[in-house]
Amino acid sequence: GAGVSQSPRYKVTKRGQDVALRCDPISGHVSLYWYRQALGQGPEFLTYFNYEAQQDKSGLPNDRFSAERPEGSISTLTIQRTEQRDSAMYRCASSLAGDGYTFGSGTRLTVV
Amino acid sequence: SQELEQSPQSLIVQEGKNLTINCTSSKTLYGLYWYKQKYGEGLIFLMMLQKGGEEKSHEKITAKLDEKKQQSSLHITASQPSHAGIYLCGAGGSNYKLTFGKGTLLTVNP
């Protein structure tokens, strides 16, 4: 596609529910990144894929968070047993060679 | 870990005025990215600076990287309401991760 597409744009979920956030990167972009941005803060790194391989997941807050990119294209970030502190903007970015990151519009997650 | 401090945190200017936003790193900057964030939109890439002393311009926005000071500045000339938003600096090291500052909220009053 022309840009990085994220869905849904907004997600409201009840505490304890699982959520799946989707990212469709720019076609041909090898690298895919997930970031989380709290209100009034800059984005914070969560995890990174090169093709289908998850190269770094050091930014995932705990084991309730997981991500996959099975075919090296679309990626899903899953949060299990959501908590209120998980509420944030979740941003996906992709790049061709590790620089010139293009970000999607993000998914605003609200846990009530 | 690398930390980026942006100043000011927020800025209100009258349309037509010039302004500068600063980004200071706790470590040497190998690559510095400037992004703009508008409500409901993604992060819009503005510029990337890699070399000490490098300066880039796009329309009325100029960014400089002072490697010795571990600092970058973003200067907007003759600001317009369309410049309003949150400006974020991000540092890329020798790896793929970007570390971001907290952002500077710019308001331009017509």
Oligomeric state of the chains present here: heterodimer
Low-confidence runs of chain B = none
How many strands in all of chain B? 11
**Biggest interface between protein chains, with counts per chain?**
A-B, 26 and 21 residues
Secondary-structure element series of chain B? EEEEEEEEEEE
User: Mind summarizing the main beta sheet of chain B?
Assistant: 6 strands, mixed
Computed over alpha carbons, the radius of gyration of chain B is: 13 Å
Number of helical regions of chain B: 0
Structural class estimated from helices and strands of chain B: mainly beta
Rg of chain A, rounded, reads 13 Å
Can you walk me through this structure?
The complex is a heterodimer of chains A (112) and B (110). Chain A has 112 residues and is an all-beta fold. Chain A is 0% helix and 49% strand. Chain A has strands spanning 5-7, 10-13, 19-24, 31-37, 44-50, 53-56, 65-68, 75-79, 88-95, 102-103, 107-111. Chain B has 110 residues and is mainly beta. Chain B contains no helices and eleven strands. In chain B, the strands form two sheets. In chain B, strands 2, 4, 5, 9, 10 and 11 form a six-stranded mixed sheet that branches. A five-stranded antiparallel sheet of chain B has the order 1-3-8-7-6, with no helix packed on it. In chain B, β7 and β8 (71-76) form a beta hairpin. Chain A binds chain B through residues 3-4, 31, 33, 35, 40-45, 48, 55-56, 59, 91, 93, 98-106, and chain B through 4, 31, 33, 35, 40-43, 45, 48, 88, 90, 92, 96-103.
State the gist of this model.
The complex is a heterodimer of chains A (112) and B (110). Helices cover 0% and strands 49% of the residues of chain A.
